[in-house]
Specification:
single chain; 131 residues; mainly alpha; 6 helices; globular
Length: 131
């Protein structure tokens, strides 16, 4: 429980710090973002470590169906947040197709595994007993 609370505090603090920087000093936020973008391998490593740590807490303590609903909510929130910037990145869809499976296969496998597990749980998993 303590681990989940620590992760929740890190999440809340990171969001509030980011929003504060965007409101007060967007130039500093942009500079920091560009500095991070220059370190592709380090960013991938950081996100993979964070994925493993958060994944451990998520998949050992929450029901898979609840996790899927939270992922849907988060994906929708992210999509809604990015809609105003669609005109700024018209080449993104082409880049996704061009890169293809080569650089993103671990992520695609994880998405597919979660989706398959959810479908299995919903359609073939333990039947809930009415009573």
């Amino acid at each position: 429980m303590l681990g989940k609370k620590i992760l929740a505090v890190i999440f809340a603090a990171a969001i509030l710090i980011k929003l504060t920087f965007l409101l007060i000093s967007p130039e500093q936020w942009l500079g920091a973002t560009q500095a991070f973008m220059g370190h592709y391998t380090a960013m991938m490593g950081f996100y993979l470590v964070l994925l493993v740590i958060t994944g451990y807490f998520i998949f050992t303590s929450l029901d898979l169906i609840d996790v899927a609903v939270v992922i849907l909510f988060t994906s929708t929130l992210l999509g809604l947040s990015l809609i105003p910037y669609v005109a700024s990145v018209p080449q993104l869809p082409e880049a996704i197709v061009r890169v293809g499976f080569a650089k993103v296969w671990p992520t695609w496998i994880l998405w597919a595994a979660i989706a398959a597990a959810v479908l299995y749980r919903v359609f073939a998993g333990k039947k809930e007993q009415k009573g």
